[in-house]
Amino acid sequence: MPDLWGERLTAADLRARVGQVAQIGGLRRVRRMEGVEDGLDVIELRSGGGLELDLLASRGLDLGAAYFHSRPLSWLSAAGFSHPGLREWLPDGFERAFGGGLMTTCGLSNVGAAGQVDGVVYAQHGRASATPAYDLSTSGEWVGDDHLLTVRGKTREAVLYGDCFEKTRTIRAALGQNRVQIEDVIVNVGARPAALLLLYHFNLGWPLVRPETRVQFPSTGQRVVFGEAGDWQGVLPPDPQYAARVTEHDLAPDADGWVRLSVQSPTTSFNLAYQGHLPRFSQWQQFGSGDYVLGLEPGNVGVLGRAAEAAAGPLDFLQPGETRTIRLQVSVEATGERP
Length: 339
Fold this sequence. Notes:
By secondary structure, the protein is mainly β. 6% of the residues lie in helices and 48% in strands.
């Protein structure tokens, strides 16, 4: 039952008050025009409770700009969300097409640095975020007194004589709730075993990220991957001399198997939970001027690239027909003063 502006409303109550649910929230498909975003297909999600989120259909249904009561949650890079047809497959091609946004999917054959393994060249952070979704569907329907919003689409990452993956992403929300659920089902649709490298790159920005913000992880151990060691729970003001830091954490799941963490500002609590085969967690702290972002990155690998991961230990291979299911949940709530 939606909780809208202090009222708990049944389906009948809401129908008596509005001509259509779109007055409150819902899903809308749009196509961007001009600049690097020209032709980008986007699904706009409005929860009716204050959460607004762009789902980037042209970029694998990744999560773009996000707002809570009109305040930004996500960091947006200077590069913008370029159409995937504009990505340059050069060493710095990822940075030129990385728009940031609330969540960028990295993989499915490489995460982190570009490199070459067994004669195959792997691009930085892979191709997942530059692959358009197909078989797209959107729906908004009443189930009892709950109005449920669902978006579903597939992507395929395949190459002749090489790895072939298919990912089905389902995104769910409910009217009046500031929570989004993401489910990825990834299957090896090829004829030979294939290594799956996967990381979910959440990117939080100002004003959620500011010196008063605190990071809360169930961390049982940390190690610096690059940059200098420092306070991983705090946030610094923008500094033009700041050098990026990546820290890998050992995170303990709750009894139900979900890992839960939060980022708390004086006005907003951003909460992330995930479940599935994501045993690694990287934290990206980039508090430079103009590039002011906090990254939360659950994955099954770190960020040093396929070559480094293969040298460090066995990769996560999927047999033909084998499936991995990953579930993530994002929720937002007001804390302290109303946002």
